[in-house]
Amino acid sequence: LLQVSEITVGQMLMITQSNSNLLNNYNDGKILSENELYKKIISDGLLNSATEFMNGEVPSSKNKISKNQKLNRLLCARFLWNLYNGNKNTKAQLSKYSVMFAGMDDSPVPDVEINSPDFDAVLGCIELEFMNLNDGINFEGEKSVSGIEFSESIKKVKWFFWRKYFMKINFKLLFDCIIDVFAVFFYLAVMIYTKNKNEEKNKIRSKWR
Questions:
Q1: pLDDT tens for residues 96-138?
Q2: Which residue among 11, 54, 106, 128 is least crowded, i.e. fewest CB within 10 A of its CB?
Q3: Long-range Cβ contacts of 186-193 (<8 Å, 24+ apart)
């Protein structure tokens, strides 16, 4: 799938499942078929707009995204943004950019309007560097996404969570533990060395008696 130049929505889900544990909250840690996974993701709203996902709305059959639909950058951003906030349990943050830019006329990304349903997803993915602006200005949301491009984005989402847990480590405590272990080994080494030296001295003395 990573070699596919234009992946579908279903293929996006399979890459996510194969290359991360980010869908464990949705597939219960099981490996599902593309069709099973798609149905689960649709029912849980991960392909909805940020507002719909936040409110737990289910899209009508008329507006439901097909698993065979080609994945474009807008839909990719939508999925990544929902997946990120779903795993962080921060659904309240899904629309934070819409709130931040409410009442403003100009969008910071010229080709994604503030009233776009994917405005929050695009800005969130850019700020967190899950995706980028190819020309440094526009998002180019209608462009298709390749397997390798999507895989790189998923790696960045994974790295965010790995980094978050890594930063929770108390390095001072860890350093103190290492020092304590080293001190114990050093003490034991000295004791063994002293004992061996004493035994050698005793042997030498016994020979001269």
A1: 999 999 989 899 999 999 999 999 999 999 999 999 998 999 9
A2: 106
A3: none
> With contact defined as beta carbons under 8 Å apart, do 149 and 77 qualify?
no
Average pLDDT over residues 81-98: 91
pLDDT (tens digit, 9 = 90+) per residue, 149-191? 999 999 999 988 776 555 555 556 656 667 767 777 776 777 7
Assigned token pair, 120: 């929050």
3-class SS at 196?
A: helix
- Residue 79, judged by CB atoms within 10 A of its CB (0-12, 13-18, 19+), counts as buried
Rounded to whole angstroms, the Cα distance separating 95 from 51 reads 6
Longest pairwise C-alpha distance within the chain: 104
Please give the distance of CA 208 from its chain centroid, rounded to a whole number.
74
Q: 153: buried, middle or exposed (CB in 10 Å: 19+, 13-18, 0-12)? A: buried
Give 26: exposed, middle or buried? Use CB within 10 Å, 0-12, 13-18, 19+: buried
